[in-house]
Amino acid sequence: MTHIKNNLAAIKLQITQACELANRSIDEVCLLAVSKTKSADLIQQAYDSGQRAFGESYIQEAVEKIQQLTHLNDISWHFIGPIQSNKTRLIAENFSWVHSVDREKIIYRLNEQRSNQDIPLNVCLQVNISDEKAKSGINVNELERYASLIEQAKHLTLRGLMAIPKKNDSSESFHKMAELFTKLKLSHPSIDTLSMGMSGDLTEAIANHSTMVRIGTAIFGEREIAKE
Ligand SMILES: *Cc1c(COP(=O)(O)O)cnc(C)c1O
């Protein structure tokens, strides 16, 4: 119990200090606890310590845990992993956010499969910011087109952008993301989310306008299964 509680307190302190350094208010940065590969019991412990937003990357295990934790009715589930098109229904039906949208087909399917719910699905577009050939994410020059597609989708709400920079160039990538976010906001003023920063680089991300840091290891410890 206590180690997750302590880890959460330590991360919040780190976020507070990063905000102070960047001259930002702590209300501008949301903490997403990344619980992939971690048990429902550990998620419950984080919840009992006050955490409400959780990120998952593997749809099958995520849905199992979501179903085990339906009694936590103010929890919010964010899907942050690669999306296979035959898994979109599970995302549309079980999550309130998805951060990793990067294909047209996925947008159409999520919109269609969300249509029987009152609340639209919150969507961030994943950007291939380090321009890696094999990496997921939209090319920078296609962002505007994708943003418009989501604006037109009745059951989706465009919230912003997400990125997972390459290990050694996160500083430059975060800076580029901040510029893209500011630019996209001009044509889509309602967007409010820049999802970037993980356990190892959250201070840098917050210095570059991140509004949501996705933290796994620093809260739940190392993951045993190195699935990524
Ligand atoms: C696993 C994962 C994280 C969390 O990474 P940590 O280094 O454990 O904090 C954040 N974002 C995405 C997309 C992930 O897959």
UniProtKB/TrEMBL annotation:
The modification N6-(pyridoxal phosphate)lysine is found at K36. Keywords: Pyridoxal phosphate. Residues 8-223 form the Alanine racemase N-terminal domain. The keyword Lyase does not apply. InterPro entries: Ala_racemase_N (IPR001608), PLP-binding_barrel (IPR029066), PyrdxlP_homeostasis (IPR011078). Belongs to the pyridoxal phosphate-binding protein YggS/PROSC family. Pyridoxal 5'-phosphate (PLP)-binding protein, which is involved in PLP homeostasis. This is Pyridoxal phosphate homeostasis protein. It comes from Thalassotalea castellviae.
